[in-house]
Amino acid sequence: MSLNVDSFLNSLAKAPIKPVYLIAGAEALLVQEAADALRQCLREQGYSERIVIDADAGGFDWNDLHQHGASMSLFASLRLLDLRLPTGKPGKEGAQALLEFCQAPPPDTVLLVTCQDWSNKHGGKWSEAIEKQGELVVAWPVKPGEIGYWISRRLSAKGIKADAEALQILSARVEGNLLAANQEIDKLAMQGMQGPVTAAQMQQWVADSSRFDVFKLIDACYDRDFSRASRILLGLRAEGEQVPALVPMVGKELLNLAYYARIQEESRRAQSAMQADKLWQAKQAQMLRMLDHGSCRLFEDLCRQLADVDRMSKGRLGGDAWVALERVLAQWAEIKSRSCVSVCA
User: Fold this and answer.
1) Per-residue pLDDT tens for 299-330?
2) What structural domains does the chain harbor?
């Protein structure tokens, strides 16, 4: 059975070292923190040599994994093979290589596989073999109704206790993006914030530092105002913002729209689901207006297009990431009626 990140981190110090670990999920921050904690634990136990293997690099040969496993360590008796598999899909050759590794793990070696994408469709015999021989850790997305609690715990770990209204302000500021939330919390801690924090203090400390803000970009799409969204996107680019930082925040919004659109289409109970997830009233109204026009099919297609934007921004797919991102925003912001689903066909 797979572990969530919290369970993994809580058991890491006292659990025996396994020969192989798979840490996967779309929540990049949680995947990174779980992997960093494992790396630190291994260093403390003498795994001083680390070999990074990028399975997404051009010309990658899965035989490299076998060769690294079979070769003797040059610098230490204990070593870590750090395999990056961003898509979570090793392909037929990669799946076979991982299966063979798990069937006969080399001595004094730990294999860590990290993936920036994961769902029930990603698994297979290779991940089952890892789970049987080692540990499978999945960073499932934090649900909209849980983000406030998640932020509260992070603040408490830094010695900051926000009241309910202050917590809502910070939650609204980051819009469910864990990386953005963690950055804001770190900024508060670096400013020396300790103890109770009021809504007024939070409003002052978490004020937008940029004229063009990604949340304004998202609001413009909700308002179906593409010309404004395009100007904001241009401003973000001019101020040095990078596409990989924008994609998770836009993607989170589109994923939520697809999720609630499916509920609306199946049962007409999207608002009840939003209330159960504890979305604030303004966000409910904003999303419900959008659901009156866009379909689940459309939002899911925009999510797939956004995944291509992310790959473009990281050099894994040809194309201009900024142009592709603007195209996604145009389709979102210019929805006129449910007939717009034809663009997804």
Assistant:
1) 999 999 999 999 999 999 999 999 999 999 99
2) 3-138 (3.40.50.300), 144-205 (1.10.8.60), 214-344 (1.20.272.10)
Taking residues 58-86, what's their average pLDDT? 77
Q: With contact defined as beta carbons under 8 Å apart, do 128 and 37 qualify?
A: no
Q: pLDDT: is 233 or 280 the higher one?
A: 233
Half-sphere exposure of 196 (CA within 13 A, CB side): 6
Distance CA 252, CA 218 (A): 11
Distance CA 234, CA 211 (A): 12
**Rounded-to-integer distance, Cα 129 and Cα 121, Å:** 16
In terms of Cβ atoms closer than 10 Å to its own Cβ (0-12, 13-18, 19+), residue 323 is exposed
In order of 9, 43, 99, 135, the CA distances from 80 in angstroms are 18, 9, 18, 15
Taking the C-alpha atoms of residue 35 and residue 42, their distance in angstroms, rounded to an integer, is 11
CB atoms under 10 Å from CB of 234, counted, come to 13
270 and 295 Cβ atoms separated by less than 8 Å: no
Rg (CA), the chain: 22
